[in-house]
Design brief:
Radius of gyration: 18 Å
Strand order of the largest sheet: 1-3-4-2
Largest sheet: 4 strands, mixed
Strand content: 35-45%
Helix content: 25-40%
Shape: elongated
Number of domains: 1
CATH class: Alpha Beta
């Protein structure tokens, strides 16, 4: 599956727009990680525990978006974007969305 942030796939022509596809993941903070993160916050610098958690949430959201696109028999997802929002205290949603498309045959990269 081709996944791009651009509205087109370089070297290919879009033959059909299939519609919006999305994937999301909601992650919550772990109390133990919160304590470590709070200590790192006092010292300054990157909070690795949260960086890792958000990276995992992004990957899962992308995987779920791709699964939705595959159900539509898409060749690619264009104009991919990410959005995050707090669902409740200590839990955030990572949303990934884009437009599922089919590419013209003979133009596959």
């Amino acid at each position: 599956m081709i996944v791009v942030t651009t509205p087109t796939v370089s070297g290919s022509e879009i033959s059909e727009v299939l519609g919006l596809v999305r994937g999301s993941s909601i992650r919550s903070k772990h109390a133990g990680k919160d304590i470590i993160a709070a200590m790192r916050n006092l010292a300054g610098g990157e909070i690795y525990e949260y960086t890792k958690m958000l990276a995992q949430a992004r990957e899962q959201a992308v995987d779920r978006m791709i699964e939705e696109a595959q159900l539509l028999d898409a060749d690619a997802v264009v104009s991919v974007r990410f959005q995050t929002s707090m669902v409740m205290r200590g839990a955030a949603e990572m949303l990934c969305y884009g437009t599922a498309v089919r590419l013209a045959r003979g133009n596959d990269p």
